[in-house]
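Friendly challenge for the regulars: who can give me the structure tokens for this chain first? No prize, just bragging rights.
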Amino acid sequence: EKFTAPAYARTVLAPLFEGYQRHFREHLIAVHHAHGIMLRERGWLTAEQAGTIFAAIADAVAANAGKTLDYTGEHEDYFFWLEAQLADRIGRDVAGRLHTGRSRNDIDHTILRMVMRERLLGILAQLHRLIATLIRRAEENIDTLVVAYTHGQPAQPTTFAHYLGAFIETLLRDADRLLHAYATADRCPLGAAAITTSGFKLDRARTAELLGFGAVQENAYGCIAGVDHIAETFGALKTMLLGIGRFVQDLNAWTSFEVGHVHVPDAFVQISSIMPQKRNPVPIEHLRLQCSLAAGRADAILLTLHNTPFADMNDSEGPVHEAGYEAFDTVARVLDLLDALMAAVTIDEARVRTHIDQACVTITELADSLVRREGISFRQAHEIAAHLARVMIAEGATLANLPMATFTSAFSNAIGRAPSITEAEFRQVCTPEHFIAVRDMFGGPARMDESLEGYRAALSDGQRRAAAHRARIDRAGVLRKR
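First reply, four minutes later:
Bragging rights claimed.
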């Protein structure tokens, strides 16, 4: 007899049953094996009983391989459906012994963390590949000039490598956040039972080991009530998406016709159905869109957890995780597309140099050089440079063609003497190459070789940590046998 109201079955239980099969079925089987092995080792199952249970599980799995079962209402959820399958095969007495000392609570929370681990390792692998691509592109563009903007206006020249370095550092921090989120999720709650453990002397460390967990989460109440591993994971994903989205906004601006500093190859360009001249780099728009969608989906998870009780609740279980997997899937698309795009784009240096001249963005170094060479204060030097900027804007001149007499006059009026700097020196200190070469402090564009070495080391360390997590899962006895 169907136990529940049709509306409840239709709107809640059937979707849960289908989602469980899609995301969690294999992990439930692994948990059954890990718990069964531990029960046998602790003496709560005989070897014969354990073998009978494991054979029944294998038979039930084989009988339904490749199938997505319809929800009939006969059983509350997939867990009870599988328990009934075992009972049909080996009897309730033997089948029921598998559930000794545990609850659906700790089973579900264990399974959810197992899936979370897999998702995080997948995203980390993609993120590490993107970082490696960006490091390679930075190495190829150590001397490639770009214009750095502040408040939407040309500010100073730098190199593409230096600009990419800022993004690389952000992504390395994102990877650290995701690795920390992984470590938080990688604590096994199995054995917490409903919320206080049980009177059976179970070996929680053994089941954690069999399932490839790095540690056991200690407090049993927190195993069931805590949701910080979920919040930390989706908070880290959202933080990463915010940073990527801002970088994508720069790409969008730099590929515009008016700026044109970044060239997107034809493989990433779509055309207009009516305007034959158009080259639309729409993958950049799709990146921005997907970042927004994924950030919104991550936000939905965080909002669902808000103002919920510190106790067992459906608000942090299957449906929430399923919605979160959409965020993971979209993040995966973002990282895949951005990796391919950044491997392909190039900088139009001729256009960049034109804008460097037109915007007079090297004039900061002229002011700095006057301080160093003429012994005047920075404020005096800044006022001279500001006067020259106003003249160049009014006359359409650049630092490359500004008459030396105009500079000499501005300097003399401000300082009361002629400058000692020669015209050749004046022209040289106004070049973008000089601007960058003298910025050799730690973190500056002239120190990118050193920075890139550090980025490579940080990437290697992150990859090593992720590989260690993966290796522990791969070594896990239960998971390896499946």
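The chain has 20 helices and six strands. The beta strands are 145-150, 153-159, 187-188, 215-216, 262-263, 346-347. Your move, everyone else.
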